[in-house]
Amino acid sequence: MTNAVIVDAVRTPIGKGKATGALHDVHAVDLLAHSLSALVDRTGIDPALIDDVVSGVVTQSGEQGFNIARRALLAAGYPESVPGVSIDRQCGSGQQAIAFAAQGVIAGAYDVVVAAGVESMSRVPMGSAVAGTADLNGVAFDARYPDGLVGQGIAAELIAAKWDISRTAIDEFSLRSHDLAAVATKNGLFENEIVPLAGLAADEGIRVGSSLQDLAKLRPAYYDEAMAQRFPEIGWKITAANASQISDGSAAVLIMSEEKARQLGLRPRARVHSFSVAGDDPLLMLTAIIPATRKVLARSGIDLADIGVFEVNEAFAPVVLSWAAELGVDLDRVNVNGGAIALGHPLGASGARLATTAINALEQRGERYALQTMCEAGGLANATIYERLDA
């Protein structure tokens, strides 16, 4: 079987997704183009060899509509012969881009492909693609779920209730994310993956000096009287501090066949070992990372104990904590350089960002396998295993 290998992976720093954020003035096309051009600059590859650019992007409207992958690769200076496609699997879009790219290499459809992701949440607000839609679901969907589904914040509250996760544990995990990200930044652990942009050289959302006492003062962000009556088990523990940040950013990963890498004289950093996608209860919405993890481990033949690094997207703290509790994973191996609570979660970019961080963490820690998984709206999740090739 043809191996799909990762030659390099880069990302922008992640900016705060607000009008005052450092990347707010960067057009979404230019945001993605920056990672695409940096990937070519770092590897020295002739971009004419790229068979396709597959990019995740969630809110495909405004600047991010009309197939941003194609416009961004042209903005990055790639030849006009290079095609591009934009995909949406919600928060897992960037990770799905990697899966599609790797599958294309394994199948022989691609020799060289770029998987990427982008989201400028400050310029293209989350949900704006469906804003004003009178009926999003249709008759048959609503008949199957007559009580209606809920937003992600309520889903996170339901997860905290189901797994009996305390507010203290949630806030402790959130504080841990910022502390680990701050230490990683201070020690230069992100320097190999970040390509500075617009005067920003480090992730903008990391908070230094917070305490559990500070976090405990924050009020629940999603309290709703109707939801409180519908779900009396909810303890209302989700705040702005224990949820992922609204953010701007992009990332890009160069994937090719192992044979092509040898021909070009490039040293692969990792192999895309195995991948899976799973669905779960759309009401809880964010729990599919549990079956997705089990599924990718079964496909790979790798034991959970052999995974040295886990990257589990921190959409909300209870998502990671419930996953770890269900699978028996030691948090010492999870999001070792912090996660989306501290670094931010630019929706379409996060999957490619987590992969970039995971590969660097493998090298930094001398581990062989990394497992990445992300919850996604609608009760979906991707899971991917990467293998460090010089392990």
TrEMBL record:
MF-aspect GO terms: acetyl-CoA C-acyltransferase activity
Domain Thiolase N-terminal: 5-259
CDD domains, per the entry: thiolase
EC top class, as a word: transferase
InterPro entries assigned to the protein according to its UniProt record, in alphabetical order: Thiolase, Thiolase-like, Thiolase_C, Thiolase_CS, Thiolase_N
Keyword DNA-binding part of the UniProt annotation: no
Active-site residues from the entry: 91 (acyl-thioester intermediate), 345 (proton acceptor), 375 (proton acceptor)
Record's keyword terms, sorted: Acyltransferase, Transferase
Record bears the keyword Ribonucleoprotein: no
One Pfam match: Thiolase_N
Domain Thiolase C-terminal: 267-387
Stated family: Belongs to the thiolase-like superfamily. Thiolase family.
Protein name per the record: 3-ketoacyl-CoA thiolase
Species of origin: Gordonia insulae
Organism classification: Bacteria, Bacillati, Actinomycetota, Actinomycetes, Mycobacteriales
Name of the gene this protein is made from: fadA_8
